[in-house]
Amino acid sequence: MRRFLIRVVSYTWLVLALVLVAEMLLRWRDSSFTPPPSRVATAFVDLWWSGPAHRLFASDEFVADVGASMFRLGIGFALAVSVGTLVGVALGRSQRLEWLCAPVVRLGVATPAVVLIPIAIVLLGINDRMPIFVIAFGSVWPVIFNAMDGVANVDRLALNSARAIGLRPVDRFRFVVLPAALPRILAGARVSLGIAVVLMVSSELYASTSGVGYQILLQQQKFDTPRMFAGVVMACAIGILFNALFGLYERWALRGRPTVGRSA
After folding, report:
1. Integer Rg of the chain from CA
2. Angle of helix 129-152 versus helix 67-93 axis, rounded to 10
3. What is the pTM of this model?
4. Sign (positive/negative) of CA torsion 79, 192, 205, 31?
5. CA dist 200 → 3, 133, 144, 211, 236 (Å)
6. Residue 258 has what pLDDT?
7. Mean pLDDT throughout 238-250?
8. Which pLDDT score, from 0 to 100, does residue 260 have?
9. What integer pLDDT is reported at residue 257 of this predicted model?
10. What are the distances in angstroms from CA 220 to CA 38, 59, 213, 232, 237?
11. Residue 158 has what DSSP assignment?
12. What's the CA gap between 143 and 164, in Å, rounded?
């Protein structure tokens, strides 16, 4: 806990120093295309936190756009992790299926996910289903790949021991295979989360009528640069929030496992 607090304080001072330097440089440059952090902060509050007190000062834009983005990201990421885990476990348990499908999985991992956006618009139109589909389909591949690899590399001695003491296949999967593969699955889900955030913003920039990405594009078209940067900051904040929540879940899911780290 002490180390965590020291790290937080150190990072806070570093960020404050960088912001101060940026404020001085950008005020000296005085360009409308690169506003200083103080103007961005003012625009951030005006755009997202200028609503009534009963809504905790959340503005109409916050409710409509941030709410839409977080809903799409949450549903799309949940679908990616659920489907990716099921498919990856199935492929990892069957060498024949893995041999047949591994090239498709590797192709999906290597393909830039943003190329799906025009296809999704044609198939689904401009609505909430389009970004959810793009987020889920584009971010599912790291989960599949890691789950497949994690299940395929479970210690054979542990499996043979579980079989020898008479554990049923369901119990072997529950108590041996899944716990052994869980760190790899969660590692794939963390990579998938980063992809999901990028796809959320990209799909809303490309074709949407709501969301943080839509708000960034709208302010850019209005040449309101401070508000545009305020939208970028909000997109970063959503990514940080989801990463923090996932980190808490990951720590809970892997509690009790031995970890290797640097000594104090």
Report:
1. 22
2. 30
3. 0.84
4. positive
5. 34, 10, 20, 9, 12
6. 54
7. 91
8. 41
9. 66
10. 19, 19, 11, 11, 19
11. H
12. 31
CA angle centred on 250, ends 244 and 256, rounded to 5°: 135
Longest Cα–Cα distance in the chain: 75
| From 52-56, 58-62, 120-124, 172-176, the region with the lowest mean pLDDT | 172-176
pLDDT in tens, 119-136: 888 888 888 889 999 999
If one compares 166 and 84, the residue with the highest pLDDT of the two is 84
Cβ neighbours of residue 187 closer than 8 Å, sequence gap 6 or more:
146
**In the predicted structure, residue 54 carries a pLDDT above the cut 50:** yes
| Cα–Cα distance, 214 to 137 (Å, whole number) | 21
**How many other β-carbons are positioned within 10 Å of the β-carbon of residue 8?**
10
Spatial separation of the C-alpha atoms in residues 93 and 150, rounded to whole Å: 10
Query: What tokens were used for 243?
Result: 């990463």
CB-neighbour burial class of residue 67 (10 A; exposed 0-12, middle 13-18, buried 19+)? middle
Any idea which residue has 């940067």 for tokens?
229
Structural contact between residues 73 and 241, judged by C-beta atoms closer than 8 angstroms = no
Element (H, E) at 20: helix 2-29
